[in-house]
Design brief:
This protein is mainly beta and 193 residues long. The chain is 13% helix and 41% strand. It is built from three helices and twelve strands, in the order ααββββββββαββββ. It has helices at residues 2-11, 21-26, 132-141; strands at 28-34, 38-39, 43-51, 59-64, 79-85, 91-100, 108-119, 122-123, 145-153, 161-165, 171-172, 177-184. The strands form four sheets. The chain has a four-stranded mixed β-sheet with strand order 2-7-6-4. A hairpin with a 7-residue loop joins β6 (91-100) and β7 (108-119). The protein is elongated.
């Protein structure tokens, strides 16, 4: 008799009564981003669609990637779109996952993934120690303009860039301005040593 019970459990898994499991197992999906490649500092549109057998309230879609918070945002099975603001550099990736919200399994499966390169961004060059003219040429060559120019007492960088904002290596949309602070000698009677 014990052997018969064991066989019955093996044939009928514990999660067989999950109303959402059919959808989660059978679901198919698509995911796309427009434009492709995406442009740094601009909006892109993430579009998705999914369907499955017997999908209902126990099933949802979760999207991970820039512009989505998978901890708080879930979407019904079906299709929709969502605008996202691009602040990443390199390549950005989104994943579409179907999840079974039933308490006894928590089953999930990735349905689609899309990776898109980011264009329209470069990084601020390091102009520390450059003269103001050298810094302006370097910034112009990188696609930036000189913004506000200030001064600070800095005996190690007299007539040279002592500070820059944003700092070197910061991703920034071309055409943006970079503020410079030029080192100057202290007012008399103080002297640089």
């Amino acid at each position: 008799m014990v052997a018969l019970l064991a066989t019955a459990f093996a044939v009928t898994p514990a999660y067989a009564d999950d109303p959402g499991l059919n959808c989660a197992v059978s679901a198919t999906g698509s995911l796309s981003v427009s434009p492709s490649p995406v442009v740094f500092g601009q909006n892109a549109q993430v579009l998705w669609g999914a369907d499955g057998v017997d999908c209902g309230a126990d099933d949802a879609l979760q999207i991970t990637g820039p512009g989505f918070d998978p901890a708080t945002e879930i979407f019904p099975v079906g299709g929709s779109s969502h605008p996202v603001f691009i602040t990443s550099t390199g390549t950005v990736t989104w994943n579409l996952t179907v999840i079974d919200l039933s308490s006894d399994t928590g089953y999930s499966r990735v349905l689609a993934s899309v990776a898109v390169p980011v264009t329209g961004v470069s990084v601020v060059p390091n102009v520390l120690g450059d003269s103001q003219d050298q810094a302006a040429r370097a910034l112009s060559a990188a696609g930036y303009v000189v913004g506000e120019v200030g001064t600070v007492v800095d005996c190690d960088n007299v007539n040279r860039v002592s500070r820059q904002s944003p700092s070197a290596g910061t991703p920034l949309v071309p055409g943006s301005s970079v503020a410079l602070t030029i080192g100057i000698k202290p007012a008399r009677p103080r002297l640089c040593q």
